[in-house]
Write a structure and sequence with these properties.
With 644 residues, the protein is α/β, with parallel strands linked by helices.
Length: 644
């Protein structure tokens, strides 16, 4: 039920609940996570019941109350029973507002678990130290790696103890995979995907052998018997001998021609798991080194040189400069040919370019002591005249660059921009994605319609070109040099705007890869079915599971995307009083949705990958790394907070 009236507390007294402050997309997804997967009572505190996702939040079954207050004040916190709440999530508002609300909540309830959204992660880490039980998360930082990886067509990765976990699909899966994380992958119907499907245990192969070679001998389904094939899998002996104490039903005198007919008559065992499930599959793999984008230094240098040359020059001036440069090179070659001294030639050429050369005097020429003769004098004159052309251009470029930096004006992409990624929208997520791509050495061009957007100054400090203006996307993308780009990422907060940018980008460059931020799952499904070489991600869908897990006390190390589905990589600590004490790997994985991929025991700091002992029980101080679905991690978190 929901509360009635403006600024009123919940209709009924409530305790041991969780409070979500905000009405944006992240708050919407977080409420769904808490209600559907953790099954806990949730109270939502919003500033306006009619804005953003609040009407949809009010319709969620299981929400205890929706309370409206214009500001996040002490009165508002008391209205949602902060004194008896178990957790508080602050997912909307500025960093300053969230810090103030977190400190106020701790003053009312010292034991409450507080998770707050912070764009400034360094500041968030410092605030965590002021809270007894708090965590600062950034939704944009959580989702940005998935967008950047999707734009480059490479897997996103999560670093765990020096190894980088990523998702590989179909032919990219290697033999050292950790586990299968999805199957039945069909781009035309993403609802068929099964995350963490049932897999064979470590002893599955031996179980199949025991079934096949039972007490009655090697029996195939349908009552047909044949001798075991001479392969190592047929028995314990590599020569293909039958097990001791069991005689084959078909003796050596049987005709070998009948065996192929028997094999064709055998029907597949319905209990045996197929080697490859129908549809595509995805697996979790680990690399020792994070995969980097292979961009050579030659390409980066060429991009920088062209960008510098064409930054402030028009076409006519570039022609003049190129002609002058060719003349200087020819004159340099003449001087070198006449003097046969490379160092002296460089020295005299630089002096000539600067207008500081010493000419031959008439007396020197008459005495035969001149420095070079007619052709050398001609070459020096050419270099000096060309130097008059270069000096003003270089001075103008330096002055303009310094002046534009002081004025805070972003620069437009130059004609030298090639093989770059266009980031549309410089909000929190767009700024993170552009920064991450830049740090990877990938050329980036940003587009933003709001000249006051907070991300403009951040990318300008990195020297990233920005196209400003509220004109048609077609014109803006042309200015961003769409035809020479490798990918376009649309990251505004509106699904329709993002889709419009993606369609305009595909119209202008049919080969460009498009990555779109979409909240609506149905919208995303149509997007996948319509466009190829495209990807869709949802910031709230990627970040909400991490916020929910942090609210329950788990440490989510990262999220990996399987199309529109999320796989969580989390590290759990077994503490005194935790419900995980005494559980083994079978207990953790058997209900489904969880795979134990590594373990670190209290007596050792070493992380054991692929820990195969399914009977060892967890003790206080142990840590386990799991790959889990949202529901699977919710189940573990529920066990984690239980007291024995």
């Amino acid at each position: 039920m929901t509360s009635e009236g403006w600024g009123t507390p919940p209709v009924e007294p409530i305790s041991q609940h969780y409070i979500v402050c905000g009405g944006n997309a992240l708050a919407h997804r977080l409420v769904l996570e808490l209600v559907e997967h953790y099954e806990v009572p949730v109270v939502v505190l919003v500033t306006d019941r009619t804005r953003d996702h609040v009407p949809q939040i009010e319709q969620i079954t299981g929400v205890a109350a929706v309370v409206e207050y214009p500001n996040l004040t002490e009165e508002a916190l008391r209205a949602v029973s902060i004194d008896t709440a178990r957790g508080l999530a602050l997912v909307e508002g500025s960093d300053q507002d969230n810090i103030h609300a977190a400190l106020s909540a701790q003053g009312h309830n010292p034991d409450i678990r507080i998770v707050f959204r912070m764009f400034n992660q360094r500041l968030g880490e410092n605030i965590e130290r002021l809270l007894r039980n708090g965590a600062a998360l950034s939704g944009s930082a959580t989702a940005a790696p998935a967008f950047a990886a999707a734009a480059l067509g490479r897997p996103n990765s999560v670093e765990i103890d020096g190894r980088y976990l990523h998702i590989a699909f179909d032919d990219a899966i290697t033999s050292d995979r950790i586990c299968v994380v999805a199957d039945h992958i069909d781009r035309q119907d993403l609802s068929k995907i099964r995350l963490l499907p049932e897999q064979e245990g470590d002893s599955a192969q031996f179980v199949r052998l025991a079934r096949e070679f039972g007490d009655d001998g090697p029996v195939r389904q349908g009552g047909l018997r044949r001798a075991p094939e001479p392969e190592p899998e047929a028995g314990p002996d590599s020569e293909g001998e039958p097990e001791r104490g069991h005689e084959p039903a078909v003796g050596p005198e049987a005709e070998p021609e009948a065996e192929p007919e028997v094999e064709r008559a055998v029907e597949p065992d319905p209990e045996a798991e197929p080697e490859e499930p129908p549809g595509g599959i995805a697996a979790l793999q680990a690399l020792r080194m994070e995969p980097r984008e292979p961009i050579s230094w030659v390409r980066r240098l060429r991009w920088r040189v062209l960008d510098t040359m064409r930054f402030l020059t028009n076409a006519r001036l570039r022609v003049v400069l190129l002609i002058a440069l060719a003349a200087v090179l020819m004159a340099f070659a003449v001087l070198w040919y006449l003097n046969r001294d490379f160092g002296w030639t460089v020295y005299i050429s630089l002096l000539d370019l600067a207008g500081a050369a010493q000419p031959d005097q008439q007396a020197d020429i008459a005495a035969g002591t001149g420095t070079g003769g007619l052709w050398q004098r001609v070459a020096q004159v050419v270099i000096t005249i060309c130097g008059i052309t270069f000096a003003p251009v270089a001075t103008a470029i330096a002055v303009e660059v310094l002046g534009s930096g002081r004025r805070g004006l972003p620069r437009n992409p130059s004609a030298g921009t090639r093989d770059h990624v266009i980031v549309v929208g410089l909000g929190n997520v767009g700024t993170r994605v552009a920064t991450q791509l830049y740090e990877m050495g990938v050329p980036v061009v940003c587009m933003e319609r709001d000249p006051q957007a907070r991300g403009i100054s951040a990318v300008r400090a990195l020297g990233i070109p920005v196209v400003l203006g509220d004109g048609p996307f077609e014109e803006q993308l042309r200015r961003a040099r769409l035809k020479h780009s490798r990918a376009v990422i649309a990251l505004s907060g509106d699904d329709a705007t993002n889709l419009e940018a993606a369609l305009e980008a595909r119209h202008g460059n049919p080969d460009v890869r498009v990555v779109v931020r979409l909240f609506d799952d149905d919208f995303a499904g149509h997007f996948y079915r319509t466009l190829d070489n495209a990807a869709s991600r949802s910031v709230s869908y990627l970040a909400a599971p991490a916020f929910a897990a942090a609210l329950m006390g788990s440490e989510v190390r990262g999220t990996l995307s399987v199309f529109r589905h999320v796989l969580l990589i989390a590290e759990l600590t077994v503490e005194d009083g935790s419900g995980l004490i005494g559980l083994n790997r079978h207990d953790l994985e058997d209900p489904g949705g969880v795979r134990v991929i590594a373990a670190r025991f209290a007596r050792s700091n070493q992380l054991h990958w692929g820990f195969a002992d399914r009977t060892r029980r967890l003790a206080p101080g142990d840590r386990i790394v799991v790959a889990a679905t949202r529901s699977g991690l919710a189940r573990l978190n529920t066990v984690l907070v239980e007291e024995v």
